[in-house]
Amino acid sequence: MAEKLKIIPLGGLDEIGKNITVLEYGKDMIAIDCGVGFPDEEMYGVDLVIPDFTYLVQNAKKLRGMFITHGHEDHIGSIPYCMQQVNCPIHGTAMTNGLIKLKLEEHRIADKVKLITHKPGDVVKAGCFTVEFIHVNHSIADAVCFAIHTPVGTVIMTGDFKIDPTAKDGMIDLARLGELGNQGVLALLADSTNVERQGYTPSENIVAEGLDRQFKNCDQRIVVTTFASNMHRIQAVLETATRYGRKVAVTGRSMENMIKVAQELGYIKVPAGTIVDIGAIKSLPKNKVVIVSTGSQGENMSALYRMAFSTHKQVDIMSGDRIIISASAIPGNEKAVSRIINELYRKGADVVYEKSEGLHVSGHACQEELKILHALIKPKFFIPVHGEQRHLQLHGRLAVQMGMKEKNVTIAELGDVIELSGRSCKVNGAVQAGMVLVDGTGVGDVGSVVLRDRKHLAQDGMIVVCVNLSSQDGGIISGPDIITRGFIYVKESEQLIEDLREVALEAIERCGRRRSRDWATVKSAIKNDLSGYLYKTTKRNPMILPVIMEI
Fold it and tell me: Residue 191 catalytic?
């Protein structure tokens, strides 16, 4: 039988972020993107969520390269973790590789990874695959999609995109996509993030106009927060500030790094004398200052958060300051963003954050743009990616509305092996896939059991029962002592603590006095008796840890 092309999504399905897709044919394999996800409210203490790289590690000898569509965290954030387990050349555009290099340097592996820089129009050979870089519009400079020419046909992966005819870096290359469509495209994998929204995504130019309205006639200090990666928007802030005679100070590590990389690569042009050190703004009049800050998503360590809660070393929000939040809250971050906005209002600031003000536009295609893409490319098969289940299903329906046969749309799950020939596209088996949790420097050591315990501790607290027993006859020497954390305030619940001691004492004595006592049985008796008593009296179920020492 002829070899089939395998497309294996290891991330980016049934979720927002953590995007990574593997293409495999015979003895060759490439990976597209390698991003992180962000923990939800039940992942206590978890910093990042990365894909499970087991399949890549198992097939490391086949891996011919990793191709990156753009430099957002959900597409590059896991690269350092992946490159510590497998090593292959990474192909990206200049801005994308500049940001990847920063990440590799943070993890001290920059000298071990080969970064190869390309520009739109370049064609790269990787085993049996030929990967073509095609310019697209997105909310970060240098974004591309890929036309991957394989032995069974051409596969187009859009990455994140929108259609912006007035984009500063030029409109998406619809001509090339249409040309490929006329030549014949086997399969399309397309961004589904904004499929719920009707119409078209507005141009980035609308934000520049919105910023101008906010700067005009404002005689107070202005603080602008946005995604650090959106260099077109940063450029608009710099140009608007210059137009109104204001100096710009930058605060927030990611923002400083982004601007540094973008300046070095020529993606933003800073008018001479516009940017000043954050420490110099105190000597400038309020109406001559703009502060560009991180924190549009309410992050606890961000510069805007620290300014709002008076923990920033150089800047404190003052009454009358105009705070422009040029971003929308990513799902799950709404509460954090609201908390900052409330605190800013409490300090007397003028906060501008409504979408109606024209201060933010999405970087993802809405329904009409997706229809244009489908009409141009005319794929034989369609696999929606980059979205939760509702996004994937709705995008599949949109493809059917555009004339595609329903049987030619594949809604896949993480780890599914999608096999394509010139005539068929079907799921045939699965590989190990899912999520690996990063907590501090620990990668993968926080699993479902640890998360369950953390959730239990967060909801009900903990009780530790300490008792010393004689090694001679098994009698109680001291204790049991009751220690609680996150359960009750001990000084106000002395009677309950005494009752718990009595219950623990009865449980120990019921197990009998003998030297060859089974400690597991004693611990189990203490846990069961205390658990039953606590639920009966308090309707709570704290974690109970018996600690028995033999003296």
Answer: yes
